[in-house]
Amino acid sequence: MKNKSMRAFTPSQIVNELDKYIIGQTEAKRAVAIALRNRWRRQQVPAELREEILPNNIILIGPTGVGKTEIARRLAKLAEAPFIKVEASKFTEVGYVGRDVESMIRDLADYAVNMVKSEKTAQVQSHAEELADEKILDLLIPPVKKSVGLTENNEGEVNNEAFQNQKTREWMKQKLKSGEMNDKMVEFDANSQNSIGMQVLGPFGLDDLGINFQEIMGNIMPKKKKKRKTTISEARKIIAQEEAQKLIDMEAVQKEAIDRVQDSGIIFIDEIDKVAGGGKGQGPDVSREGVQRDLLPIVEGSNVNTKYGVVKTDHILFIASGAFHVSKPSDLIPELQGRFPIRVELKSLTQEDFVKILTMPENALLKQYNALLETEGVKLEFTPDAIKEIARIASEVNEQVENIGARRLHTILTTLLDEILFDVPDKIPNEKVKITAKSVKQKLDSIVKNRDLSKFIL
Ligand SMILES: Nc1ncnc2c1ncn2[C@@H]1O[C@H](COP(=O)(O)OP(=O)(O)OP(=O)(O)O)[C@@H](O)[C@H]1O
Ligand SMILES: [Mg+2]
User: 10 Å Cβ neighbour count for 18?
Assistant: First the structure.
């Protein structure tokens, strides 16, 4: 059980899970599902062979706004795997010469450390809360000195100081736990953050040396205590957090984070098509081929220094994506092509897809707006015809102006709902708002017909 975080979904279960959020794009879902399951399978293979099995890196090809990033993002969530997204094109920009391609591995390591740390924090949380309660009790009812002894030293004499103190503490503890004391104020010593100066020193690339500067400085500078006065409920939170920090073994966290990055990390490289094709972009940019050459060792597997230790990149899963309007995957340097053996094409979304995207995913846009307005006590209702009409308009504008895929639905809905969102709750208190095909037309038709206007608004 080296990697508890990787849950063992079967490929079809993975596709089912992705279906909850992404409409269509079955081929792409299948490809990522296989890639993810293969990593799990690899973990089960005997060690000697395991090292030989390489991840099935994938290139997702498709126009903008059809779900490429969304698929990768949901996949990472599902796998509970460390995940970051980078734009390949940013490495061609001038300013990035110093900030090399390896930085993505460091970012992934940072992500993983935070992830493991918050999991560990959750595990020790209740223990930390207990400790915090004890600390607050100490403030409210300082314990009596040990020398007095807690036992009933004079027989029958139960009334000694220690016993009373204990009893009062028990009583107070109940009050603390019940929340009765929440609004009372206490003063306590909090660890003040000694992060002064760190931000200034941060960007100079000390990371690159594999040095955890913050930790070094943190150890040199004495931890300052600062008196703070807050409500008891706030103090419980602060002290519990501090106690949790003490309970967590950061070294173990970092080690586990590195393991996770190596065995289950996923890096999504967006806009890979922008670095395909040789030659330079305009101006003094780094050559595109140069970026590909920099990417190569990382994708092929190399050791990268991070402040938590060395990360081997051999088994990180890379999912690249791009529209490939101008260039083709075959314009990538051959070595890189070889490292991305799986290519899947995502389809343009149709009007029917839009209807489904509006309503079916668990985070569907209409559900989001419904939830938003429900907080004001307003019920938003879209008739099926209205939804069809929105989808139709989205397709039309995508065709006429520019195809931005499902993102078009966002712009259309904000325009459509603008008035309602503004008028609630002042003008439409406690009501049902029904949106029909007619009201959609009324609101949007004139904008759609006017191409110049729709360029700006929709
Ligand atoms: N097939 C789909 N099903 C459900 N929602 C989708 C689908 N495609 C896109 N969306 C929604 O549209 C938005 C944009 O999608 P996404 O970020 O995946 O685009 P993309 O394909 O990565 O585009 P780009 O090439 O511009 O990066 C997201 O909010 C996503 O929820
Ligand atoms: Mg994207």
Answer: 22
Please determine, looking at this structure, whether the domain spanning 351-457 carries the CATH number 1.10.8.60. Answer: yes
- Give the pLDDT band (50/70/90) at residue 4: very low
Residue 175, token pair as written in the block: 């009050």
- Neighbour tally for 355: CB within 10 Å: 19
Q: Convert 59-85 into a string of H (helix), E (strand) and C (coil).
A: EEECCCCCCHHHHHHHHHHHHCCCEEE
Ligand 1 first shell, C-beta below 6 A: 22-25, 64-70, 270, 323, 357, 361, 405-407
410 CA to centre of own chain = 21
Element (H, E) at 318: strand 317-322
Domain chopping of the chain, boundaries: 11-111+259-345, 119-142+161-255, 351-457
Q: Using the mean position of ligand 2's atoms as its centre, give its distance from the Cα of residue 270 in Å.
A: 6
Q: CA–CA separation, 209 vs 215, rounded Å?
A: 14
Gyration radius (Cα) of the chain, Å: 29
Query: What's the pTM value of the predicted model, to 2 decimals?
Result: 0.80
Amino acid 97: pLDDT: 53
Q: Which atom of ligand 1 is nearest to the CA of 270?
A: 27
Token pair in block for residue 372: 């938003």
**What homologous superfamily is domain 11-111+259-345 in, according to CATH?**
P-loop containing nucleotide triphosphate hydrolases (3.40.50.300)
What average pLDDT does range 118-133 have in this prediction? 92
What are the CA-CA distances from residue 327 to residues 140, 307, 415 (Å)?
70, 37, 35
pLDDT of residue 201: 43
Instruction: Give the whole-angstrom CA distance, residue 340 versus residue 99.
Output: 24
Residue 29, Cβ density class (10 Å: 0-12 exposed, 13-18 middle, ≥19 buried): buried
